[in-house]
Amino acid sequence: MRTVTLGPAGTYSHRAAGAVADDDEIEFRESVRDIVDAVADGDAERGVVPIENSIEGSVTETLDALADRDVAVVKEVITPIRHGLLAQSESFDTVASHPQALAQCREYLDEHYPDVTVEAVASTARGVELAREDPSVAGIGHPDNATGDLEVIAEDIQDRRSNATRFFVLAPPADRSEAGGKSSLIVSPGANYPGLLLELLEPFAERGLDLTRVESRPTGERLGDYLFHFDISGGLYEERTQAALAEIEEIAADGWVRELGSYDVEHVV
Ligand SMILES: O=C(O)C(=O)Cc1ccccc1
């Protein structure tokens, strides 16, 4: 299946995409938004995007793109993230990587390379490409990318030993499934009053539906207006999930609710 993910080759998203597609089916895009657009516009059958990291939290670019375009989530892929520092030699003065990777290695960089310039680029593999072209640049990325003139200067440089990222596998809305142990939805309540968030949470709590993630994001329209992203451990096929959603639809009658779908989780090493 034609699958788009964050490029160039060698990103963590590319590794996660390996769980759903063969390498010759994978195409690269330069941003999460381009991936979501490609799936929403029917240019690709699947898209793989990072959604949440155990150190840095949600990938807000992904949350916002999911709120803007109609796509389904058909699988979750979880992979451990172990960063390497890759360069042609020890004499570099710039470290280039994806903002999430730079943030996950902040303490390491402050301690070992307090004077380097930190440069945010579109992906970890793009930072590694820059390191391959320029001896004054080091990249942070998966150590497997240290090919050719590149050396692994240091391994496991993330600030916590356990560092994992969740990826969503996206599909066109017609492929949305109600089967699967987890579900995601986005609620834009179209209202703002005391206790609104509490009201939105109650339908889940009353039915013993565990919330595995709650995020609020600004709607971008007015300061203080939010939409909410929920992940629940329950499938849309379940009667209790449908009952909770019916209540939420009522609360959000002046806004909208998007069911992204139900899915299962796959762990990839
Ligand atoms: O840049 C990448 O390799 C990505 O796939 C995004 C990312 C960055 C850092 C941790 C997990 C995913």
TrEMBL record:
SUPFAM superfamilies: ACT-like (SSF55021), Periplasmic binding protein-like II (SSF53850). This is Prephenate dehydratase. One of its GO terms (molecular function) is prephenate dehydratase activity. It comes from the Archaea. Residues 2-172 form the Prephenate dehydratase domain. NCBIfam families: PRK11898.1. One of its GO terms (biological process) is L-phenylalanine biosynthetic process. GO terms for cellular component: cytoplasm. Residues 185-262 form the ACT domain. InterPro entries: ACT-like_dom_sf, ACT_dom, Preph_deHydtase, Preph_deHydtase_CS. Keywords: Amino-acid biosynthesis, Aromatic amino acid biosynthesis, Lyase, Phenylalanine biosynthesis. Transmembrane segments: none annotated. Pathway: Amino-acid biosynthesis.
